[in-house]
């Protein structure tokens, strides 16, 4: 499974509509409205690398109101259990 984090800049008056349309795209698991440089963050999860182009370039980027995207590809996933084990260093 490949995971991509897509930062989305939108027209200010279209944020809710863009979020709803992006959420409906196959491969998008969730969309967050956020503060900071981006207006929205979409989590994309697909099985094949080529599917990223379909979801992001052919899907998200073409939603009316999307001005630009920046895609971050995840290398590894760390859960809170993994982090607790890493910081515990074997101490009880």
Automatic annotation (TrEMBL):
One of its GO terms (biological process) is response to amino acid. GO terms for cellular component: cytosol. It comes from the Bacteria. Residues 6-77 form the Transcription regulator AsnC/Lrp ligand binding domain. One of its GO terms (molecular function) is sequence-specific DNA binding. Pfam families: AsnC_trans_reg (PF01037). PANTHER family: LEUCINE-RESPONSIVE REGULATORY PROTEIN (PTHR30154), TRANSCRIPTIONAL REGULATOR AZLB (PTHR30154:SF34). This is Transcription regulator, AsnC-type. It comes from Isoptericola variabilis (strain 225).
């Amino acid at each position: 499974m490949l995971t991509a984090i897509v930062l989305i800049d939108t027209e200010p008056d279209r944020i809710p509509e863009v979020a709803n349309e992006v959420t409906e795209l196959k491969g998008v698991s969730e969309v967050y409205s956020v503060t900071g440089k981006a207006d929205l963050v979409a989590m994309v999860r697909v099985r094949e690398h080529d599917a990223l182009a379909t979801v992001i370039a052919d899907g998200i980027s073409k939603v009316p109101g999307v001005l630009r995207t920046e895609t971050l590809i995840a290398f590894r996933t760390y859960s809170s259990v993994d982090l607790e084990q890493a910081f515990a260093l074997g101490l009880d």
